[in-house]
Amino acid sequence: MNSFSRSFTSLFLIILFNVSRLPSVDALLRAPPISAEKLIGALNLFPNQPINIVDGVDLPFIGRKIAERRFSFPNLIDPSGVSAEELGHHAGYYQIQHSHAGRMFYFFFESRNSKEDPVVIWLTGGPGCSSEVALFYENGPFKIANNLSLVWNEYGWDKVSNILFVDQPIGTGFSYSSDRRDIRHNEKGVSDDLYDFLQAFFEEHPELAKNDFFITGESYAGHYIPAFAARVHRGNKEKEGIHVNLKGFAIGNGLTDPAIQYGAYADYAFDMGLIQQTEHDRINKVLPLCESAIKLCGTDGKISCMAAYLVCNTIFNSIIARVGDLNYYDIRKKCEGSLCYDFSNMEKFLNQKSVRAAIGVGDIEFVSCSPTVYTAMLMDWMRNLEVGIPALLEDGVKLLVYAGEYDLICNWLGNSRWVHAMEWSGHKEFVAAPEVPFEVNGSEAGLLTSHGPLSFLKVHDAGHMVPMDQPKASLEMLKKWMKGSLSEWNGDAEVLVSSI
């Protein structure tokens, strides 16, 4: 063992010792790590509260699972002048069944095409970031203009689906509780809450329960999505409640199998010219320790999971230290100061009294990204969520993993590797399948590998947030994937991919 490896072995043992001395998870909650603050600051999101724990609040909606209202956003520029009833836009709270006092907030937008279109749920990652980030900047019905008016998104996913945007886990966005025991720490708590919400939603909207259902999201939702899909599938098999017509789940630039994905960081950074060979080799000397820590996390529980998080993130942090002010969500761009994206108009818009009145949130704080939720999920970070996916594939539930090619933090290379390494009955055929152009109207928008229910798509000219960078391509991707025609070519020539 050379001196570098010995020093990192010593560091790993020190980390294990120090983590073992943490008095409790509550101690972590009182001191969010710098990385959480950095993540949130990088998105130019600065919530007033670290989490929505509302002390002494008089909780409404007792005795009712769902409290939902139709609404129309103020300042919506809509030349057609349609009414709120015609729009079919809803906002609501779900009284979380298995919680002490939790309330989950959601937006629901009926399809602009047909109410018989599939029901799609979108989950934003973080962990702890509100799904309103996607709603207003990625695939929702609207975009926010600089004067805080709303304009229609030509490529909103509500054009082909009835779409839900949910603030979860508890304490994120407008979701809240009056009891800190409702903070979730693992995928069981997260997926159980989402399953209970979905049951209540279909009870409120029985006309939608027969529609095809798809789970989508990005980033840390690479954990949420497989866990939620498995929970829905189990609920169906055990006939727990309303049957959910689960057809597929899609993960965009996600974190799903950390052992494989952390191993791809230095390779991706080297391939993209961000680091030199010597730096690549030095950084990768940490990999054996990272992989060992992740294995321990899978069998040993909390302390080893915290150690894995700390050890493995030295890999990512070492790359960031070398590339400086690079935007690690899109390496084509630079961060200006500490800000990589400016999503601050979302907070300004949602904090307007007229908007709060329209969606019925009263005085509840909007928490764009919660450092407390982020910290509470640290023990979950290094767990492998790929393990539950093969059983879903074997039962015919489709999976699409897609990734923008210029994202570093959840890069396409790591995602491609775990998808190709996954053992299932179609593994050999998937690995042998050709990589073909993903074409929309004759223009190549990405490279696709698929076999049976499994598809992997590398999206051209996009970073971490594919629907934001390539809105038209992402809408076509969703539409074709839901219809089962993702690999079909269209010969009509048309420029599709946005310019850099």
What does this structure look like?
With 500 residues, this protein is α/β, with parallel strands linked by helices. The chain folds into 2 domains: 80 residues, no CATH class; 332 residues, Alpha/Beta hydrolase fold, catalytic domain (Rossmann fold, 3-Layer(aba) Sandwich). Helix content is 39%, strand content 16%. The chain has 21 helices and 14 strands. An 11-stranded mixed β-sheet has the order 1-3-4-8-5-9-10-11-14-13-12. A hairpin with a 2-residue loop joins strand 13 and strand 14. Helix 11 runs antiparallel to helix 12. The C terminus is likely disordered. Probable carboxypeptidase. Belongs to the peptidase S10 family. It is an enzyme of class 3 (hydrolase). Its EC number is 3.4.16.-. This is Carboxypeptidase.
Looking at this protein, list some descriptive labels.
500 residues; alpha/beta; Rossmann fold; 21 helices; globular; secreted
Write the layout of secondary structure elements.
Blueprint: H1 3-20, H2 25-29, H3 34-42, E1 66-70, E2 76-77, H4 84-87, E3 89-95, E4 103-109, E5 119-123, H5 132-137, E6 142-144, E7 150-152, E8 162-166, H6 187-204, E9 213-219, H7 221-237, E10 246-254, H8 258-263, H9 265-271, H10 277-284, H11 287-300, H12 302-323, H13 344-350, H14 353-359, H15 371-376, H16 378-381, H17 389-394, E11 398-404, H18 412-421, H19 427-432, E12 436-440, E13 443-451, E14 454-459, H20 466-469, H21 471-483
Parallel strand pairs: 2-7, 5-8, 5-9, 9-10, 10-11, 11-14
Antiparallel strand pairs: 1-3, 3-4, 4-8, 6-7, 12-13, 13-14
